[in-house]
Amino acid sequence: MTVFLVGAGPGDPGLLTVRAAAVLAAADVVVYDRLSAESLLDLAPATAERISVGKAPGRADMTQDDINALLVERGKAGRQVVRLKGGDPFVFARGGEEAAALLEAGVPFEVVPGVTSAIAVPAYAGIPVTLRHSSTSVTLVTGHEDPDVGEHGSVDWEAIARVGGTIVVLMGVARIGVIASRLMAAGRPADTPVASITWGTRPEQHTVRATLGTIGQQTLQAPATIVIGDVAAQNLEWFERRPLFGQRIVVTRARAQASEMTARLHALGAAVIEVPTIVIDDPDDGGAALRRAAAAVGSYDWLILTSANGAERLLNCLHDARDLGGVRVAAIGPGTASALAEGGVEPALVPAVATQEGLLAALPRPAAACGGARS
User: Which residues pair with 198 in a beta bridge?
Assistant: First the structure.
């Protein structure tokens, strides 16, 4: 079997690649870190082993050497292992170290590149990292420098300042004051625009805008992607303008039926939490009462359906739509009407307000009792 080093992207589950989704769907083991969206774990089989090896500033669930050993051990056990890493596995994600360990141990592996936060996060904040004629280069650099090198760190910030163009700093929140000072000392103007985007591409995305001279005094939170250069003055905001951005919404529908609503809410910018409060299951009598009612449905004037689930169950008990000949059908709302339409039934009544009260108000008055009306 194979160990897959998979880039999970910067956070938005929609940025996962097709190849990444395919290997997740066939995984026996998923080893994931804190920067990969937890909803992506749902793409793996329910039987897959899930192991968190997340790292946070000042805290690690597992050391890198232990992670390497874990991947080797699970890979040698003949299991399909997915190492799910935030962003791209080979962009400041230590994927190269994990690949080297697997190669040395003779364990087959494959690298599945991911969308890197260095490019995607600024885009979600409305910042293009290049602009024609003005910002024609991008330098990606880590702010998490080797502490053993000394007070000046392991990054030659003076050389980076001389390159010009856009600088994108990852993992630089703790040292941004020092970084800014060194860039200014090397000639970058103090009024150079800077933007720091925390939890980019996620519903909790937050952008702080400043300059090289002021960014050190700002309150920044990790994980952040920091953009330095003229492009950081661009504000082509779109992600944070969505109508439900910043809102947290709980969806209580049955889990199997929540995906469509969840997707629509995500598209509008909401953070969605699925908490199913109902389960759609067979009745205790196995559906015998429903089948008896369906067999006699032709004896009624009106058939009223108050849910898509009820519509689907009823249609399954009919031979086809002709069983409803002469019966007027009412649907409580567009979802129920759509379920009926899939079975070839066009409801005679769908109220403007999709509630029980709206349905009752829209139904015609029953005929006089002497008329012998059916119901």
Answer: 206, 224
Exposed (0-12), middle (13-18) or buried (19+): which is 258, by Cβ within 10 Å? middle
Torsion over CA: 67, 69, 72, 77 (sign): negative
Q: Which residues are catalytic?
A: 33, 55, 171
CA-angle at 303, arms to 298 and 305, nearest 5°: 140
pTM score? 0.78
Q: Which distant-in-sequence residues (6+ apart) come within 8 Å of 303 by Cβ?
A: 297, 314, 324, 327, 328, 329, 330
What is the pLDDT confidence band of residue 148, given thresholds at 50, 70 and 90? low
Instruction: Write out the two tokens for 307.
Output: 């849910």
Q: Which of 290, 284, 288 is nearest to 311 (CA)?
A: 290
pLDDT band at 370 (very low <50, low <70, confident <90, very high): very low
Q: What average pLDDT is seen over the chain? A: 90
* Confidence grade of residue 160 (pLDDT, cut at 50, 70, 90): very high
CA distances, 113 to each of 5, 85, 96, 116, 229 (Å): 8, 10, 12, 9, 27
What per-residue confidence (pLDDT) applies to 337?
Answer: 93
Distance CA 209, CA 191 (A): 12
Domains, the chain, ordered by start: 3-115 (3.40.1010.10), 119-241 (3.30.950.10), 243-281 (no CATH), 288-366 (3.40.50.10090)
CA 228/CA 214 separation, integer angstroms? 12
Compute the Cα dihedral for 240, 246, 248, 249 and give only its sign.
negative
Is pLDDT above 50 for 3? yes
Structure-block tokens of residue 204? 């909790």
